[in-house]
Amino acid sequence: MDIIENSPILEVRNLKKNYDKLSVLKDISFSAYAGSVISFIGSSGSGKSTLLRCCNLLEIPQAGEIIFKGEAVSWTNKTDSRQLSDKKQIIKFRTNLSMVFQSFNLWSHLSILDNVIEAPVTVLRKDRHIMRDVAYSLLEKVGIADKADAWPAQLSGGQQQRAAIARALAMEPDALLFDEPTSALDPELEQEVVKVIKDLASEGRTMLLVTHDMQLARDLSDRVYFLHQGIVEEEGHPDSLFGKPKSNRLKQFLSAAAS
Amino acid sequence: MFNVCADPSTLTEFFWVICYLTTAKHFAFYVSFFVVLVLLAIAAPLSLLFGFIATIGTRSSNWFIQIFSKSYINMVRGIPDVVFFLFVPLALDQFFELIRHKIICFDVVEPIWQGTDFVVCKAAKLPLSTADLWVHQLYAFTLALIAFAIVFGAFAGNVLSGAMRSVSKTQTETGAAFGFTQKQIFWRILVPQMWIYAIPGLSNLWMLLIKATPLLFLLGVEDIVYWARELGGSKTSMYAYPHPDWRVYYFAGLLVFYLLMTWASSKVLKRLQIKLSKGQATMAGKELQGY
Ligand SMILES: Nc1ncnc2c1ncn2[C@@H]1O[C@H](COP(=O)(O)OP(=O)(O)OP(=O)(O)O)[C@@H](O)[C@H]1O
Ligand SMILES: [Mg+2]
Q1: Which of A129, A221, A233, B124 is deepest in the core (most CB within 10 A)?
Q2: Residue-wise over A127-144: b if at least 16 C-beta within 10 A, else e?
């Protein structure tokens, strides 16, 4: 896929994150260019979710930079335990980088339609009536328009995840952050979500994708990062990364994933 | 009431009962049921409001508000209700009178505390001794109402803050991930989702509130207990309607009243719970998968 612009939508430099003494991310850097799909793979506990959560500022990394469209996150200048210092900036980052969670996290007190409408109306101050139409067409796009008035708990996992994708799209974000969107799903439900994600990729959406699904990473990605023990152990184009893995760690990981 | 009732001693049994049950005092008895219902109708929402405000207070970043709210919620748990009910109206009454005394009778030199007696000037008395009986009754009722709201507000605060803690963190965090501010998370996610967890506790409180209403009697309000005792007690031939001790029947009547109240309440509350839990069926399941 062509890289449309040469300045990245999201850039992460030398990110470090630890929980007390546990060092989860040691030194992570990557860039996500507009229209590209970047995948992160790695064994459980390698810090993939933590990395995505840092991008969305749900976690505060102890060191390193996060740069959205050329704008770096501003920190309080305390070096030992820095905090986010600009509330407007936090909202800007979060509204432009929409998360899709492993366990869907639809708001249980709202109907499917209201789940899609909620954030644009509350955060972006969009008009509720206009958003209704937008939400309907998004639900149509992910194939669950007939479930608009249902409650989240009445939907299958695959339907819930598709609703969650519609909710993320309703923000008109610059990039979508997927955290293992299919790993809570049964194999037969997985495919309906995979199809939606593939459609989004072919529309040229910028996506960060954390996944256990090697086939999906291979099919969609422009670049794949293999995380191991808090660092990027290997990165590259999916063909070379999956076709000719260099490091032993990655070889082991891929053969374990294949079996 | 009716003309036929003019001389009860001449009445047949049937008319005697009719006339007996329609005396002015019996009407006061019937009205006192409304007093109880009015108390419930005002005390319940007021307690909920107090509890809700206290719950917000416990999450305040202001140190003083937080400590105050937390101690309010926890204080009443350690104090027997009855003690509190006796204390609050008395304390409020003296507090109001003290303030009025300072304003109205600023020229009075005698101390307010004379030994152990609390003495304010006549003009500062609440209500004024010249006031109508109903003013006295309304005042006593209002003080009792405030006492109920304070005590049950603290219980409600306890239930509500527990319910708020029960809302899954993934739900609020998802709000944050979409750019909600803390305030928006609170009002748009936490508050709408807490009710489902609060309803069992609040239902319980409502039942306790119903059962606590006879405390009105203790606070000098002429409530149903007062009238049941008053009317049921044996009446000598000095009275128009002499009868032996019928208190057991009157109290049986109260029993039926309270049973009906709690029965109807449990029906309504159950419906409410069903309505609220719509769509939340897999909440527990979601919790397990937690992010
Ligand atoms: N809030 C937290 N407090 C303490 N430790 C945490 C916290 N969140 C994550 N961790 C730890 O950080 C490490 C990385 O977690 P993370 O969820 O990022 O891994 P992951 O690569 O997403 O794993 P999985 O594939 O299982 O989702 C794990 O060891 C985890 O236990
Ligand atoms: Mg994860």
Answers
A1: A221
A2: eeeebbebbbebbebbeb
ω into residue B127 within 30 of 0, thus cis?
yes
Question: From the CA of B65, how many Å to the nearest CA of chain A?
Answer: 24
Does residue B15 fall inside a structural domain?
no
Question: Would you state the pLDDT for residue A157?
Answer: 93
B93 interface with A at CB cutoff 8 Å: no
A interface mutation test: which of B167, B168, B170, B174 has the most A CBs within 10 A?
Answer: B174
Condensed to tens digits (0 to 9), the pLDDT of residues B257-267 reads: 889 999 999 89
The reply to whether B282 falls in a domain is yes
All domains of chain A, ordered by start, with CATH?
2-258 (3.40.50.300)
> Is the Cβ of B178 closer than 8 Å to some Cβ of chain A?
yes
Residue nearest to atom 9 of ligand 1 (CA): A50
Write the single-letter amino acid at B240. A
Average pLDDT of adjacent 10-residue blocks, chain B of 291 residues = 72 81 82 87 95 94 94 84 84 87 79 74 78 84 90 94 94 97 95 92 92 81 80 78 82 88 90 76 41 31
Give the integer Cα–Cα distance in Å for B231 and B20: 10
Question: What tokens does B254 get?
Answer: 């109260």
Taking the centre of ligand 2 as the mean of its atom positions, its distance from the CA of residue A60, in whole angstroms, is 16
Domain limits for position B240: 25-79+150-288
Any domain includes B128: no
Distance from CA of A109 to the nearest CA of B (A): 6
**Per the structure, how many domains does chain B have?**
1
ipTM of the complex: 0.93
